[in-house]
Amino acid sequence: MNKENFTRRILKWYDKEQRILPWRDNPNPYYVWVSEIMLQQTRVEAVIPYFNHFIEKLPTIKDLANVEDNVLLKLWEGLGYYNRARNLKKTANIIVTKYNGIIPSSTDDLITLPGIGPYTSGAIASIAFNKSVPAVDGNVYRVFARLLHITKTIKDKEVKLQIQTKVKNLLPNQRISDFNQALMELGAKVCLPNGAPLCGICPVNSICISYQYNDQNNIPIKQPKKKKKEKDVTVFLLEYNNEIVIEKREDTLLNGLFQFPNIEKKLTLKEVQNLYPKDTVTKIGSTTHIFTHLKWNLTGFHIKQQSKGKTMYVKKDELLSNYPIPTAFSYYKNYYIKENSWIKKEY
Ligand code: SF4
C-alpha cells in the first residue's frame, strides 16, 4: 500500500463526501471531546440533536463542570451509558482546576482523564489539535481488516495493534485531523458495518485485498454473541390526580436516574390487582430492553389510585423536563405521556 497514493485518495474522497456535522464545522476541543463521548455506542444521526442541545445548555467547559447532576443526566436521557456523562463532568472539573479550563493537547495528558481512553485521546489530539497520532475506532478497525484481509477477529489484541501500527505509518505530514476523520467516515458511509460494503464506490478498492478476493462480506469475521442474562421486571405506573410516582435509582445500574416503581418479577394482572385492591389496574403492555450484558423483559401496569401514597409524585410536564428517565422505561413513559388511547391497539 503506497502511503502517498492511499492518503491522496482518502483525502480527495473526504473533501467531496464528508458529512456536515456540528462538531466538524467548529472543531474546538470541547466540541470534539463531547461529540466523541456521545458517539461511543451511538450513531451520528442520533447524536446530532443531543450534541446541539447539550452545547446550547452547557456552552463551555466551566458550565459542564458546574452543572447539577440531574440536569446533566436529563441532557443525556436516551443516550444510555450514563457513566459517560458523569465522567464528562468529572473531567471538566479536572480541566478547570488542573489545566486552567483548557483541554490538554497531548495524548499522555488526555488519557489520564476519566472517560478518555486510547481512541478518544487520539481523536481529540488529532481532530482538535492536528497532532500526529492515529484515532482508530470500530469503523477504522473494520476498514483495515477488509483492506488487509485479516482473518482473525478485530477484537484480538494483536490484530488491534497491527491495525493501529498500520494507520500510524500511513499518517500524512499534513491534514492529520482530516485523514483520521476520513478513515472513520469511509467506515461509516462506504465500508459499512451492517450489510455489504459499497466497494464499487470505494476510493481505495483497487488496493483492497478482501475486494480482490471477493471476500469483503465475510471480513471482519464475526464471533458468536454470548447469550445475555435475562430478568423479568414488572413496572407500576401509579397515578393519582394526573400525577405519577417516580423514584431515584440508587444501585450501580442506572444509578442516579429516575424510574417508575418496579420489581424484578413477572406479575399477572390478578397479582397486581391483589396488591392494589382499591385501585383501577390496567395492563399496559410488554417490552424488552437490552443492556450490554443483560436483557430486561418488562411488563407494565397502570394503576389509577383512589388516594395518594407517601412516595414522590410528579406532574407530566415535570416528568418531561426535570427528571432523567432511562430508555429502559421509555415505553412506559411514552404511554403515560400520550395517554392510554393506544392501549386498545395492543390488547
Ligand atoms: Fe471496504 Fe470494499 Fe473499500 Fe475494501 S473495497 S475498503 S471492503 S468498501
Can you put this structure into words, describing what you see?
The longest helix is centred in the first third of the chain and has 16 residues. Strands 1, 2, 3, 4, 5, 6 and 7 form a seven-stranded mixed sheet that branches. It is built from 17 helices and seven strands. By secondary structure, the protein is of the alpha+beta class. The C terminus is likely disordered. It binds iron/sulfur cluster. The site of iron/sulfur cluster (SF4) has 15 residues, from helix 10 and helix 13. The site of iron/sulfur cluster has 15 residues, from helix 10 and helix 13.
Annotation, overall tally of beta strands: 7
Give the overall shape, derived from the CA principal axes. globular
Alpha-carbon distance between the termini? Answer: 60 Å
Note the total helix count.
17
User: What is the H-and-E element order?
Assistant: HHHHHHHHHHHHHEEEEHEEEHHH
Q: Averaged pLDDT, please?
A: 92
Q: What brief labels describe this structure?
A:
alpha+beta, binds iron/sulfur cluster, 7 strands, 46% helix, seven-stranded mixed beta sheet, 347 residues, disordered C terminus
Architecture blueprint of SSEs:
Layout: H1 3-17, H2 22-25, H3 29-39, H4 44-57, H5 61-66, H6 69-76, H7 83-98, H8 107-110, H9 118-129, H10 138-147, H11 157-170, H12 176-189, H13 209-212, E1 229-240, E2 243-248, E3 258-259, E4 262-263, H14 269-275, E5 280-290, E6 294-304, E7 312-315, H15 316-322, H16 330-337, H17 343-346
Parallel strand pairs: 1-6
Antiparallel strand pairs: 1-2, 1-4, 2-3, 2-7, 5-6
Helix pairs in contact: 1-12, 3-4, 3-9, 9-12, 10-11, 10-12
